[in-house]
Give the backbone structure.
Amino acid sequence: METILFGDSAADISSAAELIKKGEVVGIPTETVYGLGADALNEKAVRAVFAAKGRPADNPLIVHIADFSQAKNYTSYIPALAYKLAEKFCPGPLTMVLPKNETIPMVTSGGLDTVGIRVPSHRIMHNIIVESGCPIAAPSANISGLPSPTCAAHVMDDMSGRIAAVLDGGASEFGVESTVISFDSEDTVRILRPGAVTREMLLEICNEVIIDPSILKELAEGEKAASPGMKYIHYSPKADVKMVEGDFLNFREYISVVNSTSVYSLIYDDDKDNFPYNCMTYGNTSSEQAHQLFQCLRELDEIGAETVYVRAPLKDGVGLAVYNRLIRAAGFEVIRV
Ligand code: AMP
Ligand code: MG
């Protein structure tokens, strides 16, 4: 199959919406990362999404809708707290896991009786939902296990020949996937995957916000993942990624020992002037690091890095999302210096 690369014009969006209606799979820009979109209610189309990514069948897809008022069409119960959160964070990078109704096929929910619902703010994704008239099931548009795509070229690199089309909407605004939450009670939510809607932001609305333990550490053998995606090694480039936690001088000292031509470091912008080894930088603030992380991991592969030592990000705000992706890219190993 030849993959069409569309731009962001109204005509291109309409053509892509037609493809979705026909059960095809399309790469679509969102404010988080690029998604691999299909009609969430069409089992065959959803299976094609899993096949294009090589995604395990038990890893559910998030269902994207145009307005939170439509959530009731796909769920059997919505707590009052969900409506309060929707008022504040929808449209935006927040996915709420709710009990699904029979409208959502089991293949879409990865066999679970819940469904993750999100209202994306990106104009193109929003228009695709409205024009196709379909709720859109969309995981990140990368081959399973690789870093998520934050521009159309990344999607073409992974998906060319595997899907009908890609819409080019420029670089993703946030650069990390949505925050996924579930509801522990009427006033408590649990973060299953951190993203740009941070714990601090959720605490403005919720009494309690629990960080699921799977976010920061590997599940023990036999332990059940609250979010199936969290049990897989993920976001990983070809290079061997190692995360190093500690201040800059200790980090530099550590690299001076392990340094070789195929070793690269991924460091903060502010570190660069005092760093005499192969390196790339990924910003200083957590939101800069979220924005640049996946792009950097892909580029490090392109320049032939075999081992990448990452100076660990901070863990507050959206930094928690960056840390969560990196610890998975590093196979849960952290070097403390
Ligand atoms: P991706 O599609 O690549 O953005 O990944 C979606 C993430 O959301 C995965 O980590 C899933 O495990 C999680 N997710 C989606 N639906 C559910 C659900 N019903 N229950 C728990 N986690 C979910
Ligand atoms: Mg993904």
In short: The chain has a mean pLDDT of 96. The radius of gyration is 20 Å. Residues 139-140, 148, 177 surround magnesium ion (ligand 2) (CB under 6 Å).
